[in-house]
């Protein structure tokens, strides 16, 4: 009875926390199709202006990979009214900072300014959309920048090609089979006209969402948005091809050699459903149960108790169309990959046949509540969440309600989803090994 009262008390606390943190927002469309979201937060004199475009690596051609990430860099080169090289100078001179990032599904740009510079931020993002200068000198400059980024972050990093090794084996027809950064020879071979065509196709107002979050006056913000974005012409709607992968019904084996590693990594990867599904959220909980923290099941068993692994982890890499569930481990000494897999599979089989304990279930709920609070703890986080939930999930109010989905997931669902997706005949086993002779390109 005492445990039941404690559990009820904890759930009541979680519910009150979620309600207290509700994110208020206003949304509307311009005539050109640009979706606008406004969120006021007067706790600090700061405003975030961001634009998320529905274009990522999956929108590229197989022989022209890396374009979406390349544009993340290229569109800082300058515009008709912002001289080449001046973008960052303008932001810094006005007390701001900015950045951008790209995934397989979308590209995101944002500025953080003192709230008295909102008009400047709105103008700059409208310039990026309406008047980008895409010329050969900019392409050549950013080509070298991207190559250096690839060398530093991927080619010369231990396990830097892990995602590439997994993706090319997990996906046969879907564009998720290549990496976000792409292949440098594809960028080298591309013409200026191809880059200009990519911009014209995807960087259009009706393929984007503009978010303004922070301290601002709503009427004034709407006037500036209409002034700077309203005259931009609507583009031809993007026609997206749907790719369907055949189910994995037999184990896939693969190997990758990396000159930057000394310890082999064993990876088990499973194809999982879209991040928009309930099952994807259950898989998030499963990965947290298995490997989040030193008290998690896999870490405690393989690292602490049996001392078979230096490191072990699991995570659900959720994306718009599909996801990939990773379980990885680094052996201790001469421990074999077969031994590690056997131990990992035992824990997964327990999940598939037994209910996790009430105590472990409550710990999961507490962790996801904490994650929810943290993700909306800053105006920058709220801005990106609003853009993401609108553009990729098609339900912007998930910023307030997604935590309720996690709260509603049962121990029985955790068991059933593990049984549905995490089976030995539905996976890739990748041996990521030190290079024996020369690096694989």
Describe this structure in words.
The model is unreliable at 1-20 (pLDDT under 50). The chain is α+β, with helices and mostly antiparallel strands. Helix 10 packs across helix 16 and helix 12 (337-353) crosses helix 16. It has helices at residues 2-20, 67-74, 87-93, 118-130, 136-155, 162-170, 184-189, 192-202, 218-229, 278-291, 297-305, 337-353, 358-375, 379-393, 398-408, 411-421, and strands at 26-29, 35-40, 46-53, 97-102, 107-114, 208-214, 252-258, 265-273, 309-318, 322-331, 427-434. Strands 1-2-6-3-5-4 form a 6-stranded mixed beta sheet, sandwiched between helices. Strand 1 and strand 2 (35-40) form a beta hairpin. The chain contains 16 helices and 11 strands. The protein starts with a helix and ends in a 7-residue tail after the last strand. It folds into 2 domains: 24-229, Metalloenzyme, LuxS/M16 peptidase-like (Cytochrome Bc1 Complex, Chain A, domain 1); 252-434, Metalloenzyme, LuxS/M16 peptidase-like (Cytochrome Bc1 Complex, Chain A, domain 1, 2-Layer Sandwich).
Question: What characteristics describe this protein?
Answer:
441 residues, alpha+beta, Cytochrome Bc1 Complex, Chain A, domain 1, 2 domains, 5-stranded mixed sheet, disordered N terminus, hydrolase, metalloprotease, Peptidase_M16, zinc
């Amino acid at each position: 009875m005492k445990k039941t009262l404690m559990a009820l008390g904890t759930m009541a606390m979680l519910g009150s926390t979620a309600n207290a943190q509700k994110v208020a927002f206003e949304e509307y469309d311009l005539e050109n199709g640009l979706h606008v979201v406004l969120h006021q937060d007067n706790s600090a004199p700061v405003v975030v202006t961001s634009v998320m475009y529905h274009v990522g690596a999956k929108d590229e051609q197989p022989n022209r990979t890396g374009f979406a990430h390349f544009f993340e860099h290229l569109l800082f080169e300058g515009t008709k009214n912002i001289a080449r090289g001046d973008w960052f100078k303008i932001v810094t001179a006005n007390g701001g900072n900015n950045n951008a990032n790209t995934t397989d599904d979308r590209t995101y740009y944002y500025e953080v300014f003192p709230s008295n510079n909102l008009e400047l931020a709105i103008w700059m993002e409208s310039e990026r959309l309406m008047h980008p200068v895409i010329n050969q000198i900019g392409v050549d400059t950013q080509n070298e920048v991207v190559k250096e980024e690839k060398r530093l972050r991927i080619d010369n990093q231990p396990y830097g090609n892990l995602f590439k090794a997994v993706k090319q084996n997990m996906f046969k027809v879907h564009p998720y089979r290549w990496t976000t950064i792409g292949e440098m020879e594809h960028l080298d071979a591309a013409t200026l006209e191809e880059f200009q065509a990519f911009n014209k196709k995807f960087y259009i107002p009706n393929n984007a969402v503009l978010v303004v979050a922070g301290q601002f006056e709503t009427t004034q913000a709407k006037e500036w948005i209409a002034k700077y974005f309203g005259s931009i012409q609507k583009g031809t709607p993007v026609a997206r091809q749907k790719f369907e992968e055949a189910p994995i019904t037999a184990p896939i084996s693969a190997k990758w050699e990396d000159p930057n590693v000394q310890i082999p990594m064993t990876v088990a990867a499973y194809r999982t459903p879209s991040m928009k599904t309930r099952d994807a959220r259950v898989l998030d909980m499963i990965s947290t149960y298995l490997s989040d923290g030193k008290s998690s099941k896999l870490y405690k068993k393989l690292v602490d108790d049996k001392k078979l692994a230096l490191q072990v982890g699991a995570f659900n890499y959720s994306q718009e169309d599909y996801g990939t569930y990773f379980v990885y481990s680094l052996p201790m000494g001469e421990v074999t990959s077969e031994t590690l897999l056997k131990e990992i599979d035992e824990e997964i089989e327990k999940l598939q046949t037994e209910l996790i304990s009430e105590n472990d279930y409550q710990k999961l709920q507490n962790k996801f509540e904490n994650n929810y609070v943290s993700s909306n703890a800053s105006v920058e986080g709220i801005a990106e969440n609003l853009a993401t939930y609108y553009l990729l999930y098609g339900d912007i109010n998930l910023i307030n309600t997604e935590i309720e989905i996690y709260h509603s997931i049962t121990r029985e669902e955790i068991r059933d989803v593990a049984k549905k997706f995490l089976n030995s005949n539905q996976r890739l086993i990748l041996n990521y090994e030190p290079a024996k002779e020369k690096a694989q390109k």
